[in-house]
Amino acid sequence: MQIEKKIEDGKMTLSLSGRLDTNTSPDLEAEMKLDGINEVVFDLANLEYISSAGLRVLMTAQKAMMLCGGKMSVSKPNATVMDVFDITGLSSVFTIV
Amino acid sequence: MRRVLIYTVAFVLYAALLCVTWGIGTKQAEKKTEWQLDYGVIDVHDTVAGAIDTMLGHVARIAVRHVGSAEPLSMERMSAGAKELDIDEINVVNRDGLIIASNDPSCLGVVMAGDPVMDQFMQLTNGVTATVSQPFRPHARNPNFRAKYLAAAFPGGDGFVQVGLDERRLYKMLPSILGYIFDEWLFGRTGFFLCSDLQTGKFISNPSRHRDEATTLAEAGYDVEAASPYEIVADGTSYGKTFVQTLFGETCYCRAFKFGGHLFVAALPDREFYDTRTEFISVFAVLLFAVLAAFSSLLDKMLRDSDRLKAFYASAEKRRAKTMEIAKTIQTSALPAPLPDNPCFRLDAAMQAAREVGGDFYDYFLIDSSHLAFLVADVSGKGISAALYMMTAKTLIKDTLLAVRNPAVALTKANAELCRNNPANMFLTAWVGVLDLETGIVVYANAGHNPPCRVANAEYVQGLSGPVLAFLDGVQYKARAFRLAQGESLFLYTDGVTEALDSKNALFGEDRLADTLRAVGSAEPHHVCNIVRAAVAAFSEGVPQADDITVLAVTYVAPPRKASRSFPPTQAGIASASDWLDEAIGRFVGDGQAKVSKETISALHVIIDEVCSNIVKHSGASGFDLDIEVTRNPDGVKLTFIDDGAAYDPLGHVDPDVSLAVEKRPIGGLGILMVKKMSDSLSYSRQNNRNNFVVVKNT
To answer: Domain B334-556, what fold?
Structure first.
């Protein structure tokens, strides 16, 4: 998986491409230093699929943002990823753009 | 050159036949000469004898008139009568055959009746017979001279008068008798008679027509010594032999006889003999010449015609060879190139064209990624038109197969098209199969073609769909099907294989082909083709190949669908399992194989990630196996996870409540839920101290 990180005025944009699973989620977790960040955007346009390990990272980010009053959103998930969001009830939790 | 020969032979033949004709002509002329001489001699003899009979009869009748009746008369009276009548003997005989009066006293009292010689005269007493004549014979009482007797009856047969003529008197009489007979007497065209006095050799006949001064036979050139005169016997059966004499300077064929002290010669100049022969030969010569000339010129013409024919055939043969070459090029160029390697089948085909093109062809192509079409066909007819028709048929069948995939429908459509445009009334047999690469099912249509053979058990696929193609418009071909097992081969061929002949005119035949294929076993298509071709070649060794020999073998290989691998119970193991899915799917999915969508693959990755994470994190297993199988009906992928960790049934848990607000949810516990939701069926079992978790995801 490739992670492209961009921080601008406290807004962190993480563009993910490839697979977000047990194997790769630790990498994403390591990239997510949320100090001073009040908005996190996950660009999932190029994400092939996501497993529960990946969901865990997204949920972690969501919780962190809710604690600090910030925002988190995911953008352009593909059908497979959207399926996973639906199955896990996360599609109603996440802000999906 | 040959012409000269013909006419030389004809000429030699003509000469030889002329020689034969000459021989035959000579024989014919000899025969005719003999016959003419026979005729001449008999004629002259009978004429002379007849003249004497006439004269004596005349004398006898005068005597009868003078005597009046059978009364005794004096010797003086009888002698005077004989003298007057110029005869030697005269007797008056009464009804009883008794001589009652005679000029010869020794005759008086002689009884004729019952006498071996004289009894003949007694018929004169029957009242009907007028005269009886006897030829010259030795005189009864004086054998030194010959005499002739003739008698004439008194009216009513009341006795008769017999007159006798001595040969010596005849000698004197002959010149006067012959005088009127012999003048200008000819026989044949140039034959003539001579008569001469035996004692003097003087002619009594008139040789004036020869304008010769000769008065004797000797002067005329007649060699008495060399001549062979014969006396004519009384019954006229012998007329003497022919001999050659030179008379009046002319060579003549002669016959002669002595009569009454004279020598009679019938002479036929040899020019008449030659004329006869020449005539005969000329007729034949002309006829022969006409026949031989006509025959020679006819023969010459025939040979020249045959030369022209030979030249015509030679050029026709050249044209035909060229035609065959073109046709063969068309035929060969129509054959498909080998297909790229495909995991689901192996195929090989070969066509060995006969010296004269037979119109075989084969074809194979992928209709789509999972259907292989293959066919073998045989067009009737030879030459360019057959080759072009073959191209048309091949294109039509391929086009329709690509469009409809069902070989029966393809043949039905192709047949209609082929019937529509078939001016030369050609037809073709074809066997078309479509192999489903995923199932091994072969749907086929057979239009009058030889049945293919399943190599494994050498069993022929006998099904027929309809008649030969391009024969009947509107035929609906029926589709038939059978299933090839994994690794099973099918062998197609044309009649060039089964109808190959050996030196004893025996057919290779289906039984021999079956035996050959039975021995082949599970060889590759390439070897199957080669083995059959070699068997046919060995069988018909020394016999020229009469027809194209086409072979095609196809082996079905079921696509791989299942694979298994072991992994260590680590993070790296999970990553490897994920890679393994990609590898396995990549291997199982491709041309002619199952299709698995990208979304399905992603879902499978998620499932693997979840299940493996559980195993690695919670089971304490020493490792795990992942079986990946592509399934059919329904199409899908089956994943089997096996681990030797603690017994754990992923299905034995209550699903987490996903409706809770995110802050109230435990992080984790979603994995199994996702697996459940993203798959179509799940099952768990514990076997041999191992967890067996099966996940099926349909595509």
So the answer is: Phosphatase 2c; domain 1 (3.60.40)
Give the chain A residue whose CA is nearest to the CA of B617.
A22
Note the Cα B57 to chain centre separation in Å. 82
Tens digits of residue pLDDT in B164-196: 988 878 777 777 777 666 666 677 788 888 888
Name the residue ranges covered by the structural domains of chain B: 17-286, 334-556, 562-698
For B159-189, give the DSSP string.
-EEEEEEEHHHHHHHHHHHHHHHHTT-EETT
Q: Distance between CA B513 and CA B93 in Å, rounded?
A: 122
What Cα–Cα distance (Å) separates residue B325 from each residue in B321, B354, B427? 6, 11, 22
- Parent domain of A66: 2-96
Distance from CA of B658 to the nearest CA of A (A): 5
Q: Note if the bond before B116 is cis, omega within 30 degrees.
A: no
**CATH number of the domain where residue A17 is located:** 3.30.750.24
CA distances to B174, B241, B254 from B230, rounded to whole Å, are 18, 8, 12
Q: Which residue of A has its CA nearest to B669?
A: A52
Under an 8 Å CB criterion, which residues of B touch A? 571, 574-575, 578, 599, 602-603, 605-606, 609-610, 612-613, 658-663, 665, 667-668, 670-671, 673-674, 677-678
Could you tell me how many CB contacts below 8 A there are between chain A and chain B?
78
**B-chain residues near A22 (CB < 8 A):** 571, 574, 609, 612-613
Give alpha helix (H) positions in B488-597: 495-498, 509-520, 525-539, 571-588
> Do residue B599 and residue A53 have CB atoms under 8 angstroms apart?
no
CA–CA separation, B435 vs B559, rounded Å?
Answer: 13
Contact A51 B662 (CB under 8 A): no
Residues of chain B in contact with residue A51, where contact means CB-CB under 8 angstroms, are: 605-606, 609-610, 613, 671, 674
C-beta separation of B106 from B78 below 8 A: no
Domain count, chain A: 1
pTM assigned to the model = 0.47
B281 contacts B33 by C-beta, under 8 angstroms:
no
SS3 for B107?
helix
Superfamily (CATH H level) for B562-698: Histidine kinase-like ATPase, C-terminal domain (3.30.565.10)
Smallest CA–CA distance, residue A69 to chain B, in Å, is: 14
Distance, CA of B690 to CA of B643 (rounded, Å): 5
CB atoms within 10 A of CB B253: 21
Amino acid present at B288? L
- What tens-digit pLDDT sequence spans chain A (97 residues)? 899 999 988 899 999 999 999 889 999 988 888 888 889 999 999 999 999 889 889 988 988 898 888 899 999 999 999 999 998 888 888 899 8
Q: Which of B574, B599, B606, B615 to mutate to test the interface with A (most CBs of A within 10 A)?
A: B606
Q: What is the DSSP string of B238-286?
A: -----EEEEETTEEEEEEEEEETTEEEEEEEEHHHHHHHHHHHHHHHHH
Q: Which CATH number fits domain B17-286: 3.30.450.20, 3.40.30.10, 3.40.630.10, 2.60.40.1120?
A: 3.30.450.20
**Residues B411 and B469 sit within 8 Å (Cβ to Cβ):** yes
Residue B441: closest CA among B698, B633, B699, B638: B633
> What is the ipTM metric for this complex?
0.90
- For residue B366, what are its two tokens? 């992928």
